[in-house]
Write a structure and sequence with these properties.
70 residues; single chain; elongated; Homeodomain-like domain-containing protein; mainly alpha
Length: 70
Amino acid sequence: MTNDLAALVTQAQDDDPLRALHATTALRREIERLEAVQVRRARVAGLAWAQIADAIGVSKQAVHKKYGRR
């Protein structure tokens, strides 16, 4: 997966705008997926929504709204 992410970062800097946009979109999806996994792991480990929100840099309400009912 690390190689895939590195390849996407390289492609996101491509001179071809469409190729760069496709790579940027793929990176965003992968980052969202990884964040969801880490939030789930944090909750399973017993961390409070406030702690998770602080780590992500959003409000407790925002993180709970996004991940609380999955």
